[in-house]
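Good morning,

Both structures are done.
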Amino acid sequence: MAASVRRIYAVVLRHLYLFRTSWLRILDSIYWPAVQMVMWGFLTQFLSSQTNYVAQAFGVLLSGLLLWEVLIRGNLSLSIAFLEEMWSRNLGHLFVSPLRPFEMAAGIVTVSLLRTLLGMIPVSLMAWAFFGYSVYDLGLPLIAFFLVLQMFGWSVGLSMSGMIMRLGLSAETFAWAGIFILLPVSGVYYPVSALPTWLQYIAWCLPTAYVFEGMRTILTQQVVRWDLMAPAFGLAIVYLAIGFRIFLWFFKSSRRKGTLLQQGE
């Protein structure tokens, strides 16, 4: 059976209805990125008055924070969209309908994209209003960075959601914290070359390392490294395909074990 755009749209529409009836969900999409941006903004603004070197790092730190939040929001927004179904014991109802697992996955990926945009656009405008810094000065490469980070965040979110579907809400912590293990090796706030050699090999296996290296090159040398974008996109697509496969594998495993109807609070 081919994928149905209408069924994917139905999954997205259900979550949009949840947004319409709960302003707390909208606030939650903006709250943490805003808190992080304000805290790091004031910190880097203070440090910029201390030395010339740190003054040059102001844009690098704030851009790194905002792009890292794009990855975090992509992962968490997808996980939350899935957990909404777990918390409300709705998985059984969804999968006795014609909805197929990959349509469900495509639906929550779309919801994740909308929630990320809802959270990050206001926060990027706040960075401009509070600190006079615009992440949009990165230009067209910002679109490429955003897409790569979103795809990678979705891949992690799909894997974590599949694991929660199979193991139950006892594994929920991984949905919130799993992505942060990548922070030290992603080169968000320092170059990959600052890592030990063996960790650099791991870093270059992640699309995030290419994104943040590319970001630093633009801000410090005013050079766009398109050669970094090709491996970043390639890796992000591979990881996204793996994420979908893991989600579907856990779904089949849950269905065989008969655990889909037993999940929930």
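Second structure follows.
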Amino acid sequence: MNVVRLAAAHWRVNALNELQYRVNLVVQLFQSVIALATGLIGLSLVFRQTDDLAGWSRPELLAVMGVHLLMGGIIQAVVQPNMQRLMGDVQNGLFDYSLVKPVDAQALSSVRELRIWQVVDVLVGAAVLAVAVVQLDARVGVGQALWFVVALVLGALSIYSFWLILTTGVFWIIRIENIVELFQGVYQAGRWPVGIYPPWLRGGLTFLVPVAFAVTVPSEAMTGRLTPQTMALAFGVAMGLMAVARGVWRLGVRRYGGASA
């Protein structure tokens, strides 16, 4: 069974389970509206004082906010819940069942969970991005849209690999739940382009926690700021993180002693 069919089978079950609790949709809508309102108020306050922020105009920063919401929705719908389940399975010894399945354990551990209501954030982010493109008053060509999609996929792969590297630490250190709050705190910095931050923080948001490749680079693609060098770097970082994550995963699985150990 390939990864796509595996994900489809698990996500169909997850969707049916979550559809039983439709009040969760109302809660998610409320949270998404609050997040959107907070972001718009922040933009309004900034542009009361200046016409641009480190060379970024208001519509361009609106595009950054849209990508930030969209990527945040992807993380909370797919990446975070699967990594949290993996932590719990290793702690409780249930990871044994993943190892005996006739599929790759990393693939299985990465696609078992889907928080369907978090897709609201993805849709809100896409809507904000669409409004930003209209306000930019610039024609977005097929090539530019394609670069945006590629940058977004590379950013998502970088974030997934980063999460997997952190989560794999559970094979050595049992209690690592706090990384969820730590990541969410750092990810909020991606609401703004990393170029506005001082060099030390910019470096951290680029190479320690790949927020720059998840939010700023796709935003640059959509606003016509992306250079071939930056895209090549995003590709290299994504492939490098995936290779490192796979290596760390294999080391962790080798160390795992099972529920009966």
